[in-house]
Specification:
Length: about 240
């Protein structure tokens, strides 16, 4: 027996099984690795939850069937690096995610890369999140735009796009960091309107936007932004990152 940390991400009430992924690398078990999906069960009276599946492959049943294709295995590798990147706290894993997914999501992939629509969405979203953590803002924006073009109803992708546009639009005017301030502000405001209209009932979204546009924040504005206070009233008093999902 080996004890491992698992982050639970879903529960199937019909089978009473939980889906999670490993947070640490096993010392003795070779069929599963940190970042891999695993199905666990909690038996009545048991001291610990138990991984489900044969010891030769504890990932069995924890991934969809297309995750074992050449395309799926690469996507799994990128996703595992993203998970282990821990929202940017492990930058080496974030960089590994970019190195794994960047060539196929941004470049010209070879014939072995044949993703389904869902796999393309996941690839764009995960790469976008890793690029965002590395402050590769423009590249992240392109990935999130590609993700929402596939599924415009996904709240996390839409909020992630808004977040990166907020980073871009809050570069101080005249600083030389952006050469197209008007275009970026227009894109941000368009995305902001979409998010407000489509996700108005989402508690997290409402709370976030209330904080961003709280007039009380004006008193704490950096002196360098004082000449541009009207812009802040339009785009909010601070940037944010959307790290959910």
């Amino acid at each position: 027996m080996e004890l491992m940390w698992v982050r639970v991400i879903a529960h199937d009430s019909s089978s009473d099984r939980y889906l999670g992924y490993l947070l640490n690398e096993p010392h003795f078990i070779r069929s599963i690795h940190a970042g891999d999906n695993v199905v666990i069960r909690i038996e009545p009276g048991a001291e610990f939850p138990t991984a489900q599946g044969p010891a030769t492959d504890y990932t069995s049943g924890a991934w969809p069937a297309d995750a074992n294709t050449t395309t799926g295995l690469r996507l799994r590798e990128g996703l595992s690096h993203y998970r282990l990147g821990n929202n940017g706290h492990n930058p080496q894993e974030i960089q590994r995610c970019i190195a794994t997914l960047g060539p196929v999501m941004e470049g010209a992939p070879g014939p072995s890369w044949r993703p389904s629509t869902e796999q393309r969405f996941i690839g764009h979203f995960v790469l976008g999140r890793c690029l965002a953590e590395k402050y590769e803002t423009e590249r992240a924006i392109r990935q999130f735009r590609a993700a929402v073009a596939i599924d415009s109803t996904d709240a996390d992708a839409q909020l992630a796009l808004l977040a990166e546009l907020s980073v871009a639009v809050h570069r101080r005017p005249g600083s030389g960091e952006s050469t197209d301030e008007a275009r970026l502000e227009s894109e941000f405001l368009k995305q902001l309107s979409l998010v407000r209209a489509r996700f108005a009932g989402h508690r997290g979204v409402t709370k976030l936007l209330d904080m961003m546009f709280d007039p009380a924040e004006e008193a704490a504005v950096n002196p360098a932004w004082r000449p541009h206070i009207e812009k802040l009233r339009r785009v909010g008093y601070g940037v944010f990152r959307w790290k959910r999902r």
